[in-house]
TrEMBL record:
<feature type="compositionally biased region" description="Gly residues">
    <location>
        <begin position="20"/>
        <end position="34"/>
    </location>
</feature>
<protein>
    <submittedName>
        <fullName>YkgJ family cysteine cluster protein</fullName>
    </submittedName>
</protein>
<dbReference type="Pfam" id="PF03692">
    <property type="entry name" value="CxxCxxCC"/>
</dbReference>
<dbReference type="InterPro" id="IPR005358">
    <property type="entry name" value="Puta_zinc/iron-chelating_dom"/>
</dbReference>
<feature type="region of interest" description="Disordered">
    <location>
        <begin position="14"/>
        <end position="98"/>
    </location>
</feature>
Length: 367
């Protein structure tokens, strides 16, 4: 993940582009434990290792092939769901930052992207684009190799569920987990096959074998999306760019799309909703500083290991500590999306010190 100044998040097909911000953390019972109680039942704990001044993954995070350095970028070397690019507008003369966005952010994204693709990013604005991908296109599946493909928590939920695997088994089998320059939390990338073409593990001559649950970066392509939540108004702002790669012949097809039509056709709405919630967390300034081992455990558990988070919710004092309505609790046993939303609230409460969860009030003492 390359460092980028400011407050936007970028999602495209390939390497994640990001920035950061800085802040205060909760500990003790706020993390879901009573005195002397381990807040992560069943997880192995261990010391942090240091590598070049950056924290390495805690031993307890059994997450497959750990890669402290980003994998070498291939032809497709930008990521896909939004990361910080530009200072927040003050909101006084331009309440939604529209002028700033139109005049500055597009150029900022192009200049912040890896040099290999800077000239391939074309601002779309409200325009249309021509594109189609199918087995009849000469380059079919060519974009499914040599990828530095960032996965969001919701990507992992959809893919592991499609494959009928636990999150832990999916990450162990198919992913690299990395710490990267300028970011203090681990990011998950899809590992390419160890073959000559470095192909995606889910691509075949027929196309994508998990197409209905493919990652958001693959759905977004050939677009790149820059998104950010406006601090004053709470709305998500976004820009779209066309990533025109030399190998892609899909742009020669006759099918025409608006951005809205592409989002609907590719089923991106639920991905945008869930990815926006998580991007708010990982681009927050308070995750800029080095995190303690427990904080890294919190981040990993709430972001990537949903099955163990479910065990944590129902197997620890979590429900005794946090005041959740019973109507919200029962669906958490089987509804992965509801559980992931709770995990994000827990991350905000635990790492960002906000009020996304409410602690139960102690019972009043008897007179």
């Amino acid at each position: 993940m390359a460092g980028v100044p400011g407050g936007w998040a970028v999602h495209a097909h390939g390497r994640r582009i990001s920035g950061g911000h800085a802040g205060g953390f909760r500990t003790g019972t706020a993390l879901g434990r009573g005195p002397g109680e381990d807040p992560f039942p069943g997880l192995r704990s261990g010391p942090l290792r240091q590598d070049g001044g950056r924290p390495a993954l805690p031993v307890l995070l059994r997450c497959g092939r750990r890669s402290p350095e980003p994998a070498p970028g291939g032809r497709r070397s930008i990521a896909a769901s939004g990361l910080p690019l530009h200072p927040e507008p003050d909101g006084r003369t331009d309440p939604l930052g529209v002028k700033s966005r139109l005049q500055g952010e597009q150029m900022s994204l192009q200049h912040s992207a890896p040099s290999s693709i800077q000239e391939k990013l074309v601002p779309l604005g409200e325009g249309r684009f021509r594109f189609a991908c199918h087995p009849g296109v000469p380059c079919f599946t060519e974009c499914c190799r040599e990828l530095n493909l960032f996965l969001t928590p919701y990507d992992i939920v959809r893919m592991k569920r499609h494959l009928e695997m636990t999150a832990e088994a999916f990450i162990d089998t198919y992913c690299d987990v990395r710490f990267e320059e300028g970011r203090q939390v681990p990011m998950v990338y899809l590992a390419m096959r160890d073959n000559e073409r470095k192909t995606c593990p889910f691509v075949s001559a027929r196309g994508c074998e998990i197409y209905d649950d493919r990652p958001s970066a693959c759905r977004t392509y050939p677009l790149a999306r820059a998104s950010r939540k406006h601090k004053l108004h709470g709305v998500f702002l976004e820009n779209y760019f066309l990533l025109k790669e030399d190998h892609c012949r899909g742009f020669e097809e006759d099918r025409s799309w608006s951005i809205e039509e592409w989002i609907q056709n590719q089923g991106l709405a639920p991905y945008h909703e869930m990815n926006n919630l998580w991007m708010e967390i990982v681009t927050d300034a308070r995750l800029k500083r080095a995190l303690a081992e427990r904080q890294l455990q919190v981040f990993y558990l709430g972001s990537y290991d949903l099955d163990r988070f479910r065990s944590f919710v129902f197997g620890s004092r979590f429900l005794a500590l946090f005041d959740l309505p019973e109507t919200e609790v029962e669906p958490l046993r089987k509804d992965d999306e509801a559980l992931l939303r709770l995990a994000f609230r827990w991350l905000r409460f635990s790492l960002l010190n906000d009020d996304s969860l409410r602690l139960r009030q102690p019972a009043a003492a008897s007179p």
